[in-house]
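Table S2 (text version). Query chain:
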Amino acid sequence: MRKHIFNCHQANYSEALRSLESSTESAGTMESFFKKQKLDDNGGENMTMIGVVLELNVQKLKEYVRQICTVDGLPFNTFEKSGMSQIFNPIVQQLRESGQPISLTSHQVRDIVLEGAVKLKQRIKQEISGRMLCLKFDMATRLGRSFLGLNVQYGDSTGIQIRTLAVREVLTASTGAELSKLIVNILQDDFDITLTQIYTITTDNGSNALLAGRLISTACVESRVEVQEENRDDQDDEKIEGLLQSSTAEFLMSTYGVHQVRCAAHTLALAVNDCIGQKAPESTKCLLQRARSVVCTLRTNNIRKELKRQNLPMAILDVETRWGSTYDMLERLMQLSTFCKDNEMLIERLKLLEDEWGSFEELVESLAPARELTIKLQNSSLTPGQTIGHWQLTMLSLGKRSTPLAATLAERMSARGRFLLTPPILAATYLDPEYRVLLNEDQRKLAKTELEAMYRKIQLLNGQDFDLDGGISSESAVTDFESDIDTHSLSPMQLMLLSKEKEMSTQAASSGSKRISDNTTIIDSVDGKSYKHVECPFKYWSQQDSKILSQLAWTALAVPTTQVSVERLFSGVKFILNDLRNSLSDDSLQAIMLQRTNSLM
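Corresponding structure-token output:
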């Protein structure tokens, strides 16, 4: 840059040099030097030349290069293109002259990205070391290549933390056995994660994903039993041996295994497909085919032009396996109903009966609550209690709609929703001061049992002993909750939760019983507390005196109920792995996605 100014702008060289020498900012900052100069080249008068003085070092330049190739998604050869090379070559040359050699060829840029991935892995290793972790994974195909996406999730005093571990190409059959081997290899070889650290695995309802989760859980049981045998005292040998010999497979899985959590968004999709998919009544199937026929007509070339001329939205044709696109298709069709009615005499295929239009409107109205729930489930920081709350609120909303489809959908959501109420979800909801009221007495008992099992797993992870007879009573109870509800500005969710609280209080009063039968442990001390709205349950528990309850709460509340963050991984893969970069190696794609997704998170 200095040579360029000297050779081409000698009149400005001295002033630029003084500006450079007087700069005292740290490396990596930028100070601009402006000097206007009229050009005289066939109409170029009044244009301005700008001289820029940069303070940069090799490490800072590498950081910018990594961001360009990962977050921005540009290819490795970006800096070899004519325009970019004219910008970066003077910078590279100046760094070389100052004794900081660097090259921005495609091979060197790839090495810079791979180097950044190695450093990021080390930081993630340190961050998750010794923590109880929740996994979630999914499979996707892009340009004929199959990929496994793997996230890890945990909680701390600030909230839910999500980290991408892998976007790995799967070169074997996508069976449950092969997937479980690949996942365990990534955990142990790439991130030094032991199986005793895994608390839950969130998957969709696919048979291969469920089998992979069960195989990993079995391996975790063996690992935790082995750790327990290594840590036990001689005086406890007989007690532990008797316990293990008399234990059923169910006890071992609940105490030492990994819980599988089904994705709430996928479960909702199955419930909706029960109503409008292959299992739907023939009348509903025929109605949807009639809608698709009209939409195909609206998407013909001449009609598309007419819609555009009238500033009307384009018709949407659904993908039959994705119910959300079916809802979008029907909603858009209703928006174009006036256009269809105005032109049905000219275009016979646009003609529909009034009863058919009424049926389409009923379909949209009945599916609207499920569509709203789908959007809410896209929040990757959703806690289990919030998920259950939104699920129940959606069923209440469906119940207020007097349509057969809404009633059927509410019934299917109730039936499939039971698979979501696994012990970790109940435990997390129990420790959520806002959503605890959603649990009945039996669910609270299961939640407390699960929290004791979680406590044992945490102690095993930390190499501590525990009381095999159960009971956690070594610390003070949780602080009483205070009611701080603004009754003048209640949301539908708050109204539902307060109604649940009142219902439970009425039932307890009529039966003459208390919620807590034996308040002897700090886990029991949480029960019996009234509804309390909190902005962040993680922060709430960090302010409590009980460190044990705080640790349990952070672990439980971080259990993922959806695979949203993994789905976003695949959206990133679609952005990076396009038709022009389909030959990108697995190592390069892994390095790009690891840095891209973790920086965005």
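Notes on Table S2: The domain at 117-263+563-600 is CATH 3.30.420.10 (Nucleotidyltransferase; domain 5). The first helix runs from residue 2 to 8.
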